[in-house]
Specification:
This protein is α/β, with parallel strands linked by helices and about 575 residues long. It contains 13 helices and 25 strands. The structure holds adenosine-5'-triphosphate and magnesium ion.
Length: about 575
Amino acid sequence: MAAEEPNAESMNPEAAGGSPAAPSNFVRDIVLADIASGKHGGRVQTRFPPEPNGYLHIGHAKSICLNFGLAREFGGKCNLRFDDSNPCKEEVEYVESILTDVRWLGFEPDGIFYASDYFDQLHAWAVQLIKQGDAYVCDLTAEQVREYRGTLTEPGKESPWRNRSIEENLDLFERMKNGEFPDGTRTLRSKVDMGSPNLNMRDPVMYRILHASHHHVGDKWCIYPMYDFTHGQSDSIEQITHSICTLEFEDHRPLYDWYIQRLGIFPPQQIEFDRLNLTYTLLSKRRLLALVQQGVVSGWDDPRMPTLSGIRRRGYTPEAIRTFCGRIGVSKTNGINELGLLEHAVREDLNAHALRAMAVLRPLKVVIDNYPDGQTDELEAVNNPEDASAGTRMVPFSKVLYIEQDDFREVPPKGYYRLSPGKEVRLRYGYLITCTGVEKDPATGEVTTVHCTYDPATRGGNAPDGRKVKSTIHWVSAEHAVDGEVRLYDNLFLTANPNQENEGGDWMANVNPNSLEVVSDAKLEPSLKAVAAGARYQFERLGYFCVDPDTTPEKPVFNRTIGLRDAWAKMQKTQQG
Ligand code: ATP
Ligand code: MG
């Protein structure tokens, strides 16, 4: 017997051909123990069960990585199941976006299912519970049901309809199904225990009357099962071995198990883990929907949104999100993770893979007075210093250039080593230049043009006499520059914990009014002219940028994914050193 049982050893990730780096956590430990004990014959079947009432967000990514990750690691399967028992808030648009996002994250569901496809079976099971004396039709209104339920300190009161005969219950439930009663007039409730300390066990509603059309099953039903009567049984139908969900369902587990036990069907094990919370980020579909509906953002895929479609458009990579989800791990207590940790994972990935380019966001004209008129020099620039295989490209250099306004000071403050009158700097991949003077707008006194000379012997950036310059700045040749739009983003919320603050009050008051700045006249190097939406770059010295779908061949549009400064990595260093 023992020889036939799969054991943890033979199922280790490397042996199973999975990822060797799977982080250990308590959910994984449960799965390992179940494989070792031969529960379910060593089979691992998980699912990711979103309700299609909004777009997926970064919190869902944690659940996706956990569910698909465990299945992958142990040679199991993971389904995508649309938990669609509430027709009022669900839409096909959401169904489609969810599938796109799961695939984008790098996971292909082993099966794609809809809880609504199980409505016939669920109905049959409801009838079974009525016949067993475990369910009854109740005529209390929703408000009365709430009143009768009691509180955490007071037991509930039994419904006057609780002891209807099985025949009457069967008849009324049938008539509910046939559409004889208006919405809200009756419910089907399970007969559990009105004295239970767990409110979820006080005769919870199984079915409500709702004359509403459903995005997936149309007008077939006018009664709809409640989440608690749908979820566990759907898991059971799909022979889910480990039903992994977030901690708020811990209190629902006794009910989950009660239905499965009363119905005598395959028993999945529900395991709860902590929801992802991120600083400066709101993770609730309801509130994200409000941001969309009230026009605070341009849509679910606005690059400031924490939705997967938003952060994809912003330039985040699926690899970085998976790395982040692996690093945060899972636990049994809710907390809040630093947004900086996610950003750190994104920077790491983009640093390794993004092509470098030069772009000037706030252009200041520089004229190299001793450079021949009409001449162009092609300078070789490295595409990615982290990846030699990315090669090099040629960047045109000419007499008139743009540099960042910030890289010039007529009167340099102490410690300022960039360009200023009489000072020499290096142009990235170019020459050493020295500032000789400025032109100003006579009306405003603003510097409009900086005059410089270049040293022809310093092509590539080094002086033959070995003289040092302290600063290297980026630039774009004016004649060759491509005009572009660059969208700069900041956190959508001003406070670190917008999820919990103003819980009952005006959470919208935390919205950052300056979360988007549009630079419409950026100057880009010519290689950035014909770029495809989704392409990612590092603009040297500025940060990581991703081509927005709004881009056109005439005017490229970039989103700033993230700046270069890694506060999180710096903090880690300080803590270690
Ligand atoms: P929201 O409150 O944002 O609407 P939800 O929990 O209602 O989220 P579902 O569509 O029911 O969203 O979620 C699908 C799965 O994703 C569930 O198993 C849920 O527990 C999980 N999930 C949702 N939000 C998070 C989160 N912030 N962190 C981890 N898992 C999450
Ligand atoms: Mg929900």
